[in-house]
Amino acid sequence: MSKRVFLIFSLLLAFSCSLVSFAQTKAVDAEGHQWWQHAVFYEIYPRSFADSNNDGVGDLKGITSKMAYLHDLGVDDIWISPCFPSPQVDFGYDVSDYENIDPMYGTLADFDHMVAEGKKHHVGIILDFVVNHSSDQHAWFLDSKSSKTAAHRDWYIWRDGKAPGQPPNNWTSIFGGSAWKLDPTTNQYYYHFFYAAQPDLNWRNPVVETAMLDTTRWWYKRGVAGFRLDAVDTLFEDPILTDNPIEPGTNKQGDPNQERKYNDKFPEVHDVLQKLRKVADESNAVLIGETWTDNIDELKQYYGQHNNELQMPMDFMFTAVNKLSPPELRKQIAAVDGAGGWPVYVISNHDIVRSYNRYGDGKNNDAIAKLMGAFYLTLRGSPIMYYGEELGMENNDPKRKEDVKDPIGQTGWPQEIGRDGERTPMQWNTEVNAGFSTKDPWLPVPPSYKTHNVATESKDSNSVLSMYKKVLALRHTNQALLEGSYTALNEDDANVMSYLRSYKGKAVLVALNMSASPQKATFNLADKGFSPASLKTLVATPQSSAKGSEVTLEPFGVFIAEVAK
Ligand code: NOJ
Hints:
Elements: H1 3-25, H2 35-38, E1 41-44, H3 60-65, H4 67-73, E2 77-80, H5 108-120, E3 124-130, H6 139-144, E4 158-159, E5 180-183, E6 188-191, H7 206-221, E7 226-230, E8 246-250, E9 256-258, H8 268-282, E10 286-289, H9 296-303, E11 312-313, H10 316-321, H11 326-337, E12 344-346, H12 355-359, H13 365-376, E13 382-386, H14 407-412, H15 454-458, H16 464-477, H17 479-483, E14 485-488, E15 496-503, E16 506-513, E17 519-522, E18 536-540, E19 545-547, E20 550-553, E21 558-563
Parallel strand pairs: 1-2, 1-13, 2-3, 3-7, 7-10, 10-11, 12-13
Antiparallel strand pairs: 4-6, 5-6, 8-9, 14-15, 15-16, 16-21, 17-20, 18-21, 19-20
Bound molecules: 1-deoxynojirimycin (NOJ).
């Protein structure tokens, strides 16, 4: 080995070791960035990821067996959708015991083993904390409904009807029908923003608050790196139950539309988030929020006035752009990037049609999937991937009502087909059921598994998976991508989305052709203090390249390059 090669090798080794220890110690780096600001998150829907006992439903041992895959892919932390005991009315989002594991997924010992294996592979575990409601089978609710004087009565929201046979007010459940259900034992109604099997907890009761905070402490002690907080927008509602204003038309469930003015986004939620954060800070943990905000001011509030609430409120306004429109995407990124907190980018999850279908044009879906990966994984902020997105997994929607598993699809069919399509089993290989299980899985895999699976795509340097791997590897090692600022370039260009990520005199240029025709883009890098002739390709699609400061991009082409002074 020449001296020079040895020196480069040693530097690389030192740098990669420093990254490993950064993740392990969860320390703050020279830029004041915390571990979660360098992390790539990956959502796992546990029913659908890996089935170790071949019963057709995924489990924790399955997840544990895939830690090496996750690490090689470039994932730092996995967010596991609820895996707690649950009657599974809403597939785990109806929790009947917050401090245990559903036997379908395994045991607490399996959980501990998963945490330990995760540590070995530098993969942290984020749990999904369903804070707004429990299952109607939770011991708290069973006691609560047993009598008006039960110890847990005030843990939920009970009210008399307005008149015989009439609920307390006009609020509707987001999953259809009235948000109130009459319980015959005490002849009072309880409130449920989601299904009737998901009664809302009464966060105005301090005992509920203490119990929930203690639950997070309990899991932190077991080694979790943080929580994704479910449905935080709806923790509180108007105590005097004012009717919501009615709006024109009906929703997919056939209910009259209403403005959720009196049961959504109450300011009290911020007090709760501050308390949850205080506990999280004791363990250097991260709080990710399911925050469906309508504008940037609402999103800003979720960081907390003193950055003391959610470190990572998800920006769903980004997913709402929902098309390859550089002007609109630029606008949304500028708003979030300038909001004062750390941006969180998501392009799909278990409630949203997969990005492959939403952005795909039906002809160039693979190219578009690669482009989307190269896009949101190079922005300033933390990305949250959704399992299978790295393969170009597509939605596999039910074709007949009788095949629907998601209750909102059963009640809302055909206007609302439910969320089964985006929750199908992970596609591991070309074997039966995509290698997920030897038994028929709970949801069917789409025919595209034959081409879009881990085994096949791993062998193809031009696959969606290979693009994700390259970009993720770059993201973990390139200082400008780890630490750098975001500057939009060529803001008048309606086809090419481009930006610079700059840090300490070095930068990465990202140019993405969001159109179906070839494009050229010329960059005035001198203006930004960089040499126009210095573009050094880091990741690019085969027909995309640069000459001086002019970049040529194939349809939906990707060009990522290093820029120097
Ligand atoms: C949001 C979750 O993401 C969704 O899947 C669930 O149905 C509702 N919250 C209710 O918990």
